[in-house]
Amino acid sequence: MIDQKKRSLLQVTALSALAAAALVGCGKKEEAPAPQAAAPAASAPAPAAKPEPLKIAFAYVGPVGDGGWTFAHDNGRKAVEKEFGDKVVTSFVENVPESADAERVIREMASSGNKLVFGTTFGYMEPMLKVAGDFKDVKFEHATGYKQGENLRTYDSRTYEGAYMAGVIAGKMTKTNTLGVVGSVPIPEVIRNINSFTLGAQSVNPKIKTKVVWVGKWFDPPKETEAATSLINGGADVLMQNTDSSAVLQTAEKMGKRAFGWDSDMTAYGPKAHLGSAVINWGPYYVKAVRDVLENKWAGNQGAWWGVKEGAIDMVSLAADVPDETKKRIDEIKAGLKDGSFVIWKGPIVGQDGKDVLAKDAVADDKFLGGINFYVKGVEGKVPGGKK
């Protein structure tokens, strides 16, 4: 009995001690300082949004497979893609006629998000001027034109430099002393090329005369073929063209005569007839124009006219039978055009009437070159709508 009471008393004492210990423990927890809240993790800066690519559109007067003018422009477009990668998106519309339809196409390009539009033929001048006035946030570049605006500028290549070099070769290679040119549209650009071709030929062969047949279009292979055939039947044994297809060279090949490629290297279209190709490289200008836009350096009311000096014009793929002395002369002309020591349009230069169009030692400026509407001595016929 006593043992039972002692056992109970001990249990009560033990329970009381446990309770006291628990209370003491609780008290200590309440007195401890509250734990410091963890500092919030620094938020990572949001990644910078990648700029939208510059959308660029090209309007072509002919098909990209013409082997000449439009093919050369499309090579320039591809040079832009190679240079800038995903910073740009390019597109093109081919076979855009020089008519009211050009305005429709160019307007669609401007309204569909393109911020840079290239029009690649002279006949787009008025449509581009009009559309540029309606889309001030779009930049326009017009090839071979002369009208500019605050968001419209012009660019061109000195194709007459290539024509002159072709003439030097033709003057040495002709057996009949009669050259032929298939002309497209009688604007100063084309007339200047015909004259320059003749001047180049006369520089090595004073007996040269040049016949011209106009087709009235830039790209019309059947008409170009007909014109080339007519020139050959008229005694011309070396042909040049200022049209966009390879038809002239192909006709010379079939008829056993010689000819030049124009705008692009056309060797493959008539390897037996081919004497060389006067090519245009639009890539350097197109890359510069796009870089100007990307770097916010683009400005309107400007014009560029690039040639051999800027890497825009060249004479390539000369035939094996072109004399070494002539090849050397071509190299000298290129070097002179690059460093300014050689000038093609330097007097005395005589017109068809025998009067000087440039006096001795006078050098034609770009204004003079841009307004040529006459033939030099040695070119037969009359300039359509111009003076003899």
* The CATH class of the largest domain: Alpha Beta
Discrete helix count: 11
Task: Assign the CATH superfamily of the largest domain.
Answer: Response regulator
Strand line-up across the major sheet = 2-1-3-4-5-11
| Overall average residue pLDDT | 90
Strand content: 15-25%
Describe the structure in your own words.
This protein starts with a helix and ends in an 18-residue tail after the last helix. The protein is an alpha/beta fold and 388 residues long. The strands form three sheets. It has a six-stranded parallel sheet with strand order 2-1-3-4-5-11, sandwiched between helices. The chain is 39% helix and 18% strand. Strand 1, helix 2 and strand 2 form a beta-alpha-beta unit. The N terminus is likely disordered. Helix 3 packs parallel to helix 4. The protein has two domains: 128 residues, Response regulator (Rossmann fold, 3-Layer(aba) Sandwich); 171 residues, 3-Layer(aba) Sandwich (Rossmann fold). It is built from eleven helices and 14 strands.
